[in-house]
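Step 1: inspect the first sequence and its tokens.
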Amino acid sequence: MLGLFALPLATLSTSRRGARCGWLGAACAILALFAGRSAAAQDDRDWRRRERPPESPQRFAFELRFGPYRPLVDDEFPQEKPYETAFGKDRHPLYFGIEFDWQLLRIPKVGTVGGGLGWGYTSTSGTATIATTGAPSAETTSLSIMPMYGVGVFRFDFLARETVVPLVAYAKAGFGYGLWWSSNDLRTQGKGHTWGTHFALGGMFLLDALDEHAAVELDNEWGINNTYFYVEWMLANLDGFNHSGDHSVLHIGANTWVMGLAIEM
């Protein structure tokens, strides 16, 4: 009789042990899953510490620049308004430029200080208005401007380097120089150059934040530390150092905004 009960009891005991082991195994699997996800999240947060250092040396920055450029010629001659007369009131030609910066000094927990050189080009053409009749002229007039500058540059990149906020602010100040030349269908030409000052304020979005591991690969393969999209207010004050009313000085500067892409290496 005892033998008849021994088999069911043993079977029941084995079944309970199996159930306990099954629940224990499932709990262990869930804990392992959460632990793995937690470790992966921690790895993602620590990607700079794990992969970025040692970072390649950062000494330079390069910018591609685009934006509207309406020269302030009419500010010098508000009565005659030669630019509006020749090209129209709402003409804002496209400006294309490049800038190369040398980051001389890094201030810990703040940013970089250095110098920059910039070059740009813009050109426009239109049909002038005859002053006596107000009718459009049959001649096409063109104006080309090549603004250049040398500036000091300060970049505040602490947030982008040390926190999760992928933003950089910067300021530029220095001197500008511009070449200009004009012509019309009759081949009569004018040309000249103007000195002045150059100022800019801007903000940059760190594109590395969109794909951080790809950013590491760019650094490892090409030595590109960071890539940015930026927007900048620019005052190219090419007015001959405020020689207002001087007909020998053409105000070819502009108060405008530009945007583009930048890399640091």
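Step 2: inspect the second sequence and its tokens, then contrast the two.
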Amino acid sequence: MKAISAKHFIIGLCMLTAAGLAMALKPTARIADKAPSIDLETMIPKQFGDWTIDKAVMPLLANPETEALLSRIYNQTLSRTYTNARGERIMLSIAYGGDQSNAMQVHKPEVCYPAQGFEILKNSTATFSTGSGVIPVRRLVATQGQRIEPITYWTTIGDAVAVNSVKWKLNQLKYGLTGKIPDGLLFRVSSIQSDDTAAYKMQEDFARALLGALTPSGRQRLIGHPAPTT
């Protein structure tokens, strides 16, 4: 048998060491298992400020394939339509997942909507003043036939909001280095109207009113620890 060279032996040893380190550093502890349980149905009020649930209008329903994917990613989902005294409507969708590992990441609207036959015309980032700080958000305009739907959403990973993919991944790695698997949440509001500037303003007012109606712990669940307003 041909003897193994020192070079190949060292390479093999390094590969085994790297594999061992990867296994040792693989996150195994889910933050959600030790944190207080979350119940979106009771946490989100059915009435707040000038807004009440409009039971006559249902938010967009996912097709069976997308629904199956969402059920694997999320532990809980909440979809409601709210209306105010002026007849304005906001569609709210919140999805919570206790495992934000590589295989179980949040299903973002710019992926979900095209899967439902929509076209994304606009996709940009902005900031939102929550009333207790500032968080980054993403704004879209989705269309399907004559339906024009401006969308505002944000995602959390652990206790931070991250709508930028790079920042989201960095936060995931930060938790991974401590052996923890973070939970995550997607908060989305949308409305059907052609004036996206007016739509985003109404969506911000709605989200701010909703956050103001929550308990401090409920608010933290949705926006983590936002940056102070400057």
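Step 3: confirm your contrast with the notes below.
The chain has one domain: 28-223. The CA atoms of residues 189 and 203 lie 6 Å apart.
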